[in-house]
Amino acid sequence: MQQKNQSLSYLIAGLFPWFWMGIIQLFAMSSLYLGIGNKPWIFPVSFLVSLGGLLLANQQLEINHRKTLIPVLLMLFACLGISRFIFDTTFDGQDYHQEAILKLLQDWNPVSKPSYFSIHHHYPVGSWVTSASVVSFTGMIETGKLFQLLLVIGTVYISYFSLSLIPTLTQWLRILTSIIITFNPVSLVQTLSHYVDGMLGACYLAVILGGVILWFGNDHKKTSLLAYILIGLSIVIGFSLKFTAVPILGMLIIGTGIIFFINQKIAILKGLILTAGSGGMLAIGLFAFHPYMTNTLRHGDPFFPFNDPEHQTAIIRTQLPDELLDKNRLEKLVLSTFSQTENTPNEPLKWKIPFTFNPEKLRFFKGPDTRVGGWGPWFGGMLILSLSGWIFLLKDKKNHKLALNTGLCIVFILGSVFIIPEAWNARYVPQYFFIPVIVMLAFYPQKGWFSRILLCCLVVNMLIIAGYYFPHNYKQSLKIYEQIRNLKQQEAKVLIPRYHSQAQSLARRLTEYDIPFEHVSFPNAKNCTQAMRFHGNASEVCLETQTREKSP
After folding, report:
1. Would the pTM of this model clear 0.90, i.e. be above it?
2. Cα 17 from chain centroid?
3. Which of 13, 27, 302, 430 has the fewest C-beta atoms lying within 10 Å of its C-beta?
4. Which pLDDT value is given to residue 550?
């Protein structure tokens, strides 16, 4: 019993960030509907409510409070410290993401007040209201990306618990797999930014992990209840993050239900249907009433303006490589899977031999938006290896049922990928990366040597990406801190171009570090001591020293 409770403590600790984010969104969205706006009390009160839920779960499951409180507090302070220290130097992160957060901290209400920027007014706001609640309490804009890291790390705990239910897996395999699948390439390179695709990757994974818990732990009613809560939270949070979550989560849940139906697990299927229906209604009726219902009422389309061909063309055409212009979605995905990593639309795509990579192209993993080949330099080779291995497993009559269920998992993951027209862009479909991991786990009891080869490839793939992403962002932040120190020593005022897309983010950063600034229509060269750019920010600013201001 003690060992079982120890294992359950990982699930409870991992669920905490999910539950906390859900409570924040509940309070924040309710405040917007009531016209109150985002308030500093939302962050601490939602934490206390979530903490109460954690203690209640401990009591019901007879878990020592220290086994969950210590991991939760360590997660919170570590993620808060990292998100505070590391600057978001991404374009979209400093552009419309931070701008939306800052607008929410002022007087913008997306439910009732239109915005001049259609993305702000019509797109899901779950991530923005969550970040605004954090920033409203801490006063620091960089802490707004807290849950981008917290949600992913929490899912590592959930993954470990889920895999611990599979008796054939060793402890080290559970640990490594939990880290690999949770810090998949898309989620990994967005943990230090305001992008939302990493959290979406966690939502897609949560549905799969919930299915694993229901499959292997259905003899424990309280464990099954927690699995349903996880799936429900993934729907509520996912719908509130991005439009693409709706079809992808729908496909993954339908696929999970079909697998349970084929294996005659009808009781679990009924619970899954009830959970999915309740989660969907709760998401659209409350958590994400805006934008789905407000878009429907105002424009007759819940996904407005996403379904508008002109809007799609305006977004995709600036990103789509020329070779993919006349290709269908299958051809695009195949080219992206087996080409060298690329993030520049004008650069020609180049095929590569599996399990090789061009070191020059790996620089794209320093940012959050690697598109072509964005699942990692070895992903194409691992996919070929996985599918080939699954075919051999299918021929083994002793493991025919295992191979069939594994094949169904692959089919439904691919279905969730192909349902997105632009799946060539890796960050739209992080779940594509799950295929080699699933095959590796399915093979482990029968062909341990094959699983170990695939596991080594997965580890190398992750380490290559992490080796570029984390050091780069750390060094960029150190350079920005150095620039801030120099500005303080010079006692300079910064002139910021008023209409630049990243000007609001930069102004907030300067305010937090007590550096005087002024918005101008354009930098005035006559009064400008020198021009400069902050590392990772596209706005060119001018410096106006105090001595220049005092001179006649």
Report:
1. yes
2. 13
3. 302
4. 39
